[in-house]
Design goal:
This protein has two domains: about 10-250, Spore Coat Polysaccharide Biosynthesis Protein SpsA, Chain A (Alpha-Beta Complex), CATH 3.90.550; about 255-340, no CATH class. The chain is built from eleven helices and eight strands. The protein has helices spanning about 20, 45-55, 75-80, 100-110, 130-140, 155-170, 185-190, 200-205, 235-250, 255-285, 290-340; strands at about 10, 30-35, 60-70, 90-95, 115-120, 145-150, 180-185, 210-220.
Length: about 350
Amino acid sequence: MTASRPEIVDANTPVSLSPVRESRPAQSPVVSVLVPAKDEAENLPLFMQQAAEAFAATPGRYEVIVIDDGSIDDTWATLESLVGQYPFLHAVRHRARRGIAESLRTGYLNARGNILVFYPADLQYRPEDIPRLVEPILRDQTDMVTGYKQGEYEKAFVSGIYNRLSRSLFKVPVRDLNSVKAYRREVMEAIPARPDWHRYMIVMAVAQGFTVSEVPVPLYARHAGKSKFGIGRIPVGVIDMLAVWFELRFAKKPLLLFGMIGAALFMIGVIAGIIALIFLFVRGEGLRSIWTVIQTCLILGSVFFSTGFIGELVAAQRAETRELRARIEELAHEPDTLLKR
């Protein structure tokens, strides 16, 4: 019996995923390698060749899902030719660019493996290191593994600052957060889907109670193409870091932060009012500057308290949404469970 031709799925079409899964072999792979690709037509043939060599010793264990993220070169045409050569390759397409985080989400929705691997297509990381990356998870030693970059690269200075800030802010037990990663499927299900937050996947996974470890992974020069990273990404990264910190510390209890700030401002206003009254009774004159401080503190205190109350309502809605999503996912998997019995 010949294996069925792997599918090419357009993620923008309204077609459901069930027909895609039904046409695949009954035996599911253990590891799904998710490869976001933006204008990587020159790199993909060599990437797939190296992947085939890396997976040859364990046939059927791996699948590769390449997500064409709105490429304007021949990436999609290249995938159409490659998908017939490699039985473990599946392709998904975004007609417009959505970013790495959304590409990983699309790949996760099309993946069958219980272990997911984030691997770029630019060949700065070689597919030969994927088995070593997933081995600690296969042995049940950890829930998530990140690669610790070995070798020289252009963004080493910026990456070093980013990692030092992240370690000091989030207290994560690894040295390199922005590298290739392998993780259990449950990790992807537990973290929020936000643009560019793939860089903080480890941080959010650790906050959810998952264990994480790291292995050294060699880093090479790009085989072809240009890096998508620019100097403009630095301020975006800093803002994202603060957003993640707020999400982990105060997203469930926003009134804790805004209420404390509001209470502090009210206290300053009360103290300033007492001082103003003392001056008024003792010296018989008022201080305009103190009355300005009182008014400012009372207004800002009220604003922060109101923001905290609104935040509490949003947090309650988010909690309900998470519960509904979890229930929907449970119901979606129930037919598969029944078929297996």
